[in-house]
Amino acid sequence: MSLNLTDITLTYPDGDTRLTALDQVSLKAPQGSLTAVVGPSGSGKSSLLAVAATLITPDTGTVTIDDQTTTGLSRGELTELRRHKIGIVFQQPNLLPSLTGAEQLQVMARIDGRKPRTAHTRAMELLDAVGLADQAGRRPHQLSGGQRQRINIARALMNDPTVLLVDEPTSALDHERGAAILDLITRLTHQRATATVLVTHDPAHLTAVDQIAEVHDGRLSLQAANRHYARSSRTSHAPESE
Ligand SMILES: Nc1ncnc2c1ncn2[C@@H]1O[C@H](COP(=O)(O)OP(=O)(O)OP(=O)(O)O)[C@@H](O)[C@H]1O
Ligand SMILES: [Mg+2]
Question: Ligand 1: which of 8, 9, 17, 45 to mutate, most ligand atoms within 8 Å of CB?
C-alpha cells in the first residue's frame, strides 16, 4: 500500500477550544490508483491532503508511505521523505516567473542533488508527457493557465514520487481545460503507478476513478468506484496542449 492513513484525527486551535478538522479518518491508496476527495467547503479536504503530505502532524493516527510509518520522524527525515516519495500539486501553480518551463522542473532536481544533464533529460521527458515539449523554453507569462498547471504537475513528478497529492487543480480553469487536466492526472497515475489522491469539486469529470472519498465535517466515507469509468480510460488518448 503506497499511502495508508489510519484513524487520523486533526484539530486546530479555535479560540478557547479546538476545531476538529479530521475525525478518525482512514484511507488506503494503492499504487496506480486514483482516489477522488469530494465534500463541501470547509469539510477538511485540504487538511486531509496536508496530513497525507506530512506537512501537518495529526493529533492521533498514523500516516504510512511505502510501508514507512511517519510517526516519530524528525523534521529533517520528513523533508527527505517528501522529497523522494511525495509529489504535491496545489490549486495555483506557483511557478517562478523568471524561469522557463524546463528550468522550473530542473530546479527540483538541483535541490535533490541530481546531475544537471540527467535533470534536463528528465525534465524534457516529463514536459513531453504533459504535452508541452514544444513549450519548454517559455516562461510562465507566455503560457496559458492550463499550460501552467501542466508544468506544475510535471514538476511534482520530477522526483518520481510514489504518492501524488493534488488539491483542486482545475479551479482556475474553464471547463474544457479543467477536464483535460483531470484526464492528464488520470493517465499519469496509471503510467507512473502513483497513489494519487485528488481533491476536486467535480468528480463527474474524471474519466477513471478507483474510489471516491467523501468528506463531511471531518468525517470520511468511501464510495465504490465506477468500473465503467475505469474501462473507458484505457482507450483515452493524450490530451492536446492548449
Ligand atoms: N490553519 C488552520 N487553523 C485553524 N483552522 C483551520 C486551519 N486550516 C483549516 N482550518 C479549518 O479546518 C476546517 C477544514 O478546512 P480545510 O481547508 O481542510 O477545508 P476544505 O474542505 O479544503 O475546504 P475548501 O473546499 O474551501 O478548500 C475548516 O473549518 C477550516 O476553517
Ligand atoms: Mg481546500
Answer: 45
